[in-house]
Amino acid sequence: MPIPRRRTVLGAAAAALAAPALAACGGEGAGGGSKTLRYTLWDQNQYPAMIKAAKEFESQNPGVHISLELVPYGQYWTKLQTAAIGGTAPDVAWMSTLTFQLFAAYDQLLPLSTAANAASIGAANYPPALVEAYAWKGQQYGLPKDYDTIGLWYNKQLFDKAGVRYPDATWTWSDLRDAARKLTDKKAGVHGFAAEMSNQSCYYDFIYQNDGFVISPDRKRSGYDNPRTVEAITFLIDMIKDGSSPSMAEIVDSGSASLFQSGKLAMTYQGSWMTPQFAAVPLLKKYGDVTVMAKGRKRATITNGLGNCVFRTTRNPELAKKFALFMSGKRTGEIQAEAGVVIPGYRGTEKAWLATNKQWQLQSFIDEVPYAVPFPHSINSTAWQDDEQTYLPQAWAGYDDIGDATRKLADAMNLDLRREARTA
Amino acid sequence: MSSRAMTTRRASIGSHAVLAVGALVMVVPFIWQIITSLKTIGESTQVPPGLWPAHPQWSNFDQVFTDLPFGSMFLNTALVAVGRTVAQLLFCSLAGYAFARLRFPGRNIIFAVFLALLMVPSYLLIIPQYQVIQSIGWLNTVQGIMLPGMFSAFGTFLLRQFFAGLPPSLDEAARIDGANPLRIWWSVMLPLVRPGLAALAVLTFLWSWNDLLWPLVVITSPDKMTLSPGLASLQSQFTTNYPVLMAGALVATVPVIAVFIVLQRQFIEGVAAAGNKG
């Protein structure tokens, strides 16, 4: 292979962008009126639905080719950051509420509209918490293509055996705790509930249900020194102490979902994304069900959703924006719902998703939307998520007093947030 | 006499027992992988885990081939692995030979700098290497994956040690016969370091076959992708279909095992030959 003479960085970037276009179009050059958009995503389970939606966009827009690039989640952000630094980012990419700010802060993303004018791109059709989560510094960078909430999954067989009433929308924290105690059967190795050290599908929900917070609304301060936050964590750890939840070690070893699938766990908080996996387990198909989470001082669920964001380096900004909106839009919503993997973000399109598993009250996930809280984040969330992973296990495993662990965590997190404010 | 035979026998039973346990430890994960590849999702995550699937799910293997463009991924992986292995054998043996047998000013300092390269974590090199490949215009090409792995400080170090262990009389004799350094390297030295070359070939091939992050960063279109990133994409953020993942990993491993069964004999022959000549 001859090595071409050195080109300018810009020229190389353009050439690199053109290369996949050429490969994808089978020799049809950019001058031939055809345009290629590169679209990066990470979920194999959603890939077929994304291909179908992209095909529809192609047929509605003659001469446009969408090149889908599936990247494993574990390496997704590394790849995207490397490509962005090299100036060869895709035109449109999946983003999460946690990460898009980092790309926006480094001026990599193209806003779809101003946040104030988000109605012009149809923002009213999406869960408000997530529309807000994709706004940054007055600009709207994305709309949620899907969303998730957390539900109280339970095993009716174990409830019948223990003679406990099934959970429903009237349940409060004390109902949850009492039931967990009654459902625990040490001899059978069954626990009532999993007080898991999992952020989105466990302790974050408890914290917000108790009127506490993980990060202050202005994203400048940690919430781990807030008494309500500490109280919520104490409530969870107490369930491990009185034996109605497996220990942290047991949960980490087997995973709460595996325990639930094996009939060793009567109740567990799990995200809507677990639906397809649980449906593949005969025991849960027959005896499983789901309802809204128990009410604390108030109702809350953590919600997250993926957005389609446009990179600034795109050579077809208007087309890329159109595609990003299409991939979050109504028709894509319907296609995603039929695939049954995630709840589509566009209001009204979730009906087909509900129908994929009629044996369960999946509507519970949608009922939770009005009080949904966006996944707590700041520009550099990973910094303080590492702090959580450092200090919280100490409390969960009982090595450290809960008050001490949360105080240390609050200090470490506040330090990170000050550092973040300096660099931003 | 007979008691001695008894002790030898007892010792041999003992060593066999130890070896059997070792073999079992090595083989069990592999057997577990085969069993898991035939389970349903529910069976694969059951607590406590069950041993046999109720009905072997051969369809998991079909699904690997529908989920991934397995054929082209396989071809790319083989191409990259062979290319890198051949290139490393060539370049590292040249460099190793120069560092061990040729005298030139600054030799030891340059070698020390090479060794220092071993301390640099590979993740640190991703972005500079990406920019190099980008400036050549090789992003999203198979040769783009191959290039950074065609030479290694480790391989140079490894082969230098082999070259340095050969008696100096060999190149003196060759030089008196009128051979130039390149000729000495090719005709005299290379045949003698065959075990070193075999070891480097094995290591490079395996490393390249498993390489995950670099191909992923360089390649954007699925038809140029290699197997490791393909298999990694079967793992999702929250849920993973482990049986299908295991089936895919199994199909990806089988050819490597085949290659090593073939190479193993040459590897041992190489070692034996070196022993005779020394």
From TrEMBL, chain A:
Its main location: other. Keywords: Signal, Transport. InterPro entries: Bact_solute-bd_prot1 (IPR050490), SBP (IPR006059), TAT_signal (IPR006311). It comes from the Bacteria. It holds the Pfam family SBP_bac_1. It is found in: Cell envelope. PROSITE patterns: PROKAR_LIPOPROTEIN, TAT. Residues 1-23 form the signal peptide. One of its GO terms (cellular component) is cell envelope. Belongs to the bacterial solute-binding protein 1 family. This is Sugar ABC transporter substrate-binding protein. It comes from Mangrovactinospora gilvigrisea.
